[in-house]
Amino acid sequence: MTYIAKPPLRHPTLEKNRVGYTRRDYEGKISTLCAGCGHDSISAAIIQACWELDIEPHRVAKLSGIGCSSKTPDYFLGASHGFNTVHGRMPSVLTGANLANRDLLYLGVSGDGDSASIGLGQFAHAMRRGVRMAYIVENNGVYGLTKGQFSATADQGSKSKKGVVNSDSPVDLVGIALQLGATYVARGFSGTKEQLVPLIKGAIQHGGAAFIDVISPCVAFNNHPGSTKSYDYVREHNESVSRIDFIAPGQEITADYGPGEVVEVRQHDGTFLRLRRLHADYDATDRERAMAYVQQHQSRGEVVTGLLYVDPMATDLHTAMNTSAQPLNALGKGQLCPGGRRWTSSTHRCADRAGLPPIAARSVTMTERTVFQSMSRKHVVRVGSRCQRARGGLRDDQGQLRQRAGDGAAGPAAGHPDRARPDDAGGGPGAGAGAARKVRDVMTPKPICIAPELPVSDAVVIMLEKGFRHLPVLRGERILGVFSARDALPREIGTAMGLAEFNEQVNDAAAADPSPECLRRPVSRGRSRAPYEARAS
Amino acid sequence: MMVAMNPQTWDADVAELEPGGYLFYDSTRPMPPSKFRPDIHVIGMPLTEICNAVYSDPRQRQLFKNIVYVGALSVLLEIDPEVIEKLFGEQYRGKEKLLASNVQALHLGRDFAKEHLQWPLGLRVRRADRVGDGIFIDGNSAAALGCVYGGATVAAWYPITPSSSVAEAFQKYCAKFRVDPATGQNRYAIVQAEDEIASIGMVVGAGWNGARAFTATSGPGISLMTEFIGLAYFAEIPVTIINVQRGGPSTGMPTRTQQADLLACAYASHGDTKHVLLLPEDPHECFEHAACALDLADRLQTPVFVMTDLDIGMNQRLCKPFAWEEGRRLRPRQGDDGRGAGGRQGLRPLQGRGRRRHPLAHLAGHAPDRGSYFTRGTTRDPYARYSERGPDYIYNVERLLKQVPHRRDPGAAAAGQDRRTGHPAGRHLLRLHQPAMAEALEVLEPQGIHVDAMRLRAFPFPDSVAQFIAAHDQVFVVEQNRDAQMRSLLVNELEIDPARLVKVLHYDGTPITARFITGAITQFVRSKSAAAAAVAKGAQA
């Protein structure tokens, strides 16, 4: 075995995605698999999917078991966290890793020996539990590393390279996943990348357990006549139920659709799956019918591919277990150890008094962050000593806040930049200093404030709709800080833009004159966590 | 005194009595004289008859028999009935109806005994106040609480006697201490896995990702986990395993105690491995060792076992109260300084003690995108790249050997406890149950048998163990398994002449007693002095 790294040389004009990475940044080492192996095509599809989804490579953890398929994580996403575990036990390790840090995206890469034979139990239970992950089985029906024995997914009657006929019934991983409650089940073929890439993108963005069975011919041991996992056989018998395209919010739709009914499936995070039904009777959101359809066609010898089932509002194990939004591996001693409770930073102390979870300074979440989590520390008002005064009267406190903001650190007056025009500042460095006018005169009397628990993307929606760049964050009568547009991540802004657009459409459609209620509440979210107006002043 | 209520075990129960002992039984049905022994006192009481006369419900007749005899015993042994009533009150809090009927049954028994039986017996149960500040707790609850204090956030387990209550107690304590008061969200995750393989897999995954994680299991679980333990050892992943040992091999004696997993855990997995074992003596140490194990695993990046047993784990014991020093530091968690994006430490060199290295390690905290690498169970070079080169392999395994706490490591928690040293020619007791051992020492002393004692608290052994053995001619190794596994470890690791280590083995599944230890030692000393006398005689002749 050799270790071959790709040369670091890159073309300077390589296209970058929205998070600033080129496609090369998603590649791994040079594959040591056989030339023409289907697995390499799957690696390429994963690379393309991650690049197109604008996922930072270090936000991904890729885990695998043992086998040809399980070697592939070394050949893609070289800058991601990888763990090559033991044979058939990847699902449990992934479950544990996911429990420890819910913020990463988990990619489980496995093979048919790994998932259908030795690890069938773990595969089944990970699906049952709804561990949030994209579980990809690179299914070639054969043990490649040990030179060509049948695996448990080899079809009955199919022939090995040596001419031995397989007499055992195959394990149908798709059928099992459907039955056990996986909330995103698909089958792809390594030879049709245009179908596979959107399937992988959908799986990565899915909110629960996503499973893709990818038929991936083994050129060395299972690509001969008589095999049912060869390139030729699968091409001839491929029965695609749908064409899907994964659409991030605000993304321009470029996919070229032929004739056929197009269905849009909106997911929990605001993304869309656009499905073109190739069969009028196929409904990808109906589990029972999907199971029946797949079984019927399989018995006819057809290989059904495409997105077979999706529950767009799926939740995961963390939801079921009500684990903290802050990843468990980022919790500090004070949050874990009942004795010796000691807060180390003033921010934590402040947050504690305010009855809020301490701010995870380093934690960057891929799942939804709340406004409070996202605020940079310098914008968090240290109300530790000021809590009492804040209780006495909000107005004073707000005045202080404005002055602080006006001193320059946070830019123009918090919340309403339009009120603090440069000429208002009177040429002085501070809005409140120098000029005869007081801050009180120019401030917005009833600023729109937000709750710390509001998701960042919702806050950005408000900003987009109102044209603000800052919003004060209130808990009851206490000012906790100022949320700035700069605190939002690109993907959150992306989500928000999609939402704002969507809201606009909804509002346009709902009434000729949009009511203010409608404007303030992102209708599409189905949440009641609307921002609220400051009660005082 | 024996209260024989179970006809199936009558013969065994009667045989178990010491001569002069008391046998209390239900005399409703007459027993043939052959069923008794001449050398014991027999007290019969027609429990069934009494209950049948008072209660009409068959269930009550059966259940209250037990309470009636407790009442009778309280008379015979002069137990203050108020104490028993108070205990009833605790047991049936909130079920006042049951409380009243139980108290009634108690007095039914008392009244009958006072009238018909000869009392007091002379055996007495006295009120005493020797508890001091001691607390009553079982080792499994203590270990679970230790895990809460030690910062464990992920627990994965599979039910197995006698360890299940560790996970259940962890759940209970977490619900109390680990729920975020502001959001109501849990700062812990507990998964009941599909088997022990999955449970250790989840612990490995969580440990890999920077959370403190543990599993609790027993012998059969350890057997299933060994492949993963090897992975964790070789890939350097912190794992804490609480092994509540029971009788083995196979299903063995699931409800009996033994300490027979020492070798299986010390060298778990194929290939060359050597793991850290912590050996608690009581619930107090279960608490300490569980918290310590999480720390050690994190610091050494390797699996750590807490080797408790069924007797310590499931039986409530009086022990020292737990103390948690205010401001006690959990050893730096993997992620606290320089956490990679995954919350996982990059390949950070740790004090040059043979840790993983990565050229960009120092960046891990500042540049999250530079901290990732590929963890694997295969050999790798110092830069975490796949390799099957001989020198790379040797570099790996030699480094792992250094990683396990060295004998001089102050953090090894492996300090032996010296007791009454100063008998250079004396003998040395090793390992095990402190209460039984302490009692044995007290019994041996007046018999003129002087022994120094040391209790082993961890494996690999610290230097003090080797020094202690070197200072004594004969060393008794007291343990609860057939094959003298601890002795094997001592011989193997410290290269001690096996002839100097005398086995004292107790492995019938019951907890070891002071009587057994003193018996075994006295017998050995006598036979040895007899043999020495014979040799002397032979020499004279």
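The radius of gyration of chain B is 28 Å.
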